[in-house]
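Comment thread on ticket #2218

A.B. wrote:
> Attaching the input chain for the structure job we discussed in standup.
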Amino acid sequence: MYMKVTISGMPGSGKSAVSRILAEKLKFSVYDAGQIRREIAKRHDMTIEELNEVGKTQFWTDEECDVEISKIGKEQDDFFFVGRIAYHFIPDSVKIYLSCDLEVAAKRIMGDVNRGTERYENIDHAVKKLAKRIQEDSNRYEKYYQIKYQDPSNFDLILDTTELSIEEVTDYLIDFLK
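C.D. wrote:
> Ran it. Output below, let me know if you need it in another format.
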């Protein structure tokens, strides 16, 4: 049996880390909408922050990514796809949403040295920036797709990772996927 799994959720909830671990354990591929968007930004001589700013008013910034997500969803099996609305473009996937307390998420992000260009002065600054990013993304998804990406009815499983280690989340998801 083949499987496609989309993992959505809040920044700092563990989406990328869990997907990498699960992919290794299950011998699946892993894709990341954030990485695709960073590549799009680079092709257009922009930072990801600049691309996101343009995306508030111009649909092409999302559309380029969406086309790639849809293509992978149609052409491949046995993968994890990390992306807030990847489930929308891969409707035959198992849809998982990871939530997390915003302050815990901010601490996780601040402790991740591989995070890229996101930098925060302190936890309060990180919480404010993350809340703003979540709201801006929500607005964009409603504007362009008429979807509320955090709506529980979009998902097969919603898991709060606030109090869980990455190993506990991984074990839980392996059991769920069986």
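A.B. wrote:
> Thanks. Noting for the ticket: The chain has one domain: 4-177.
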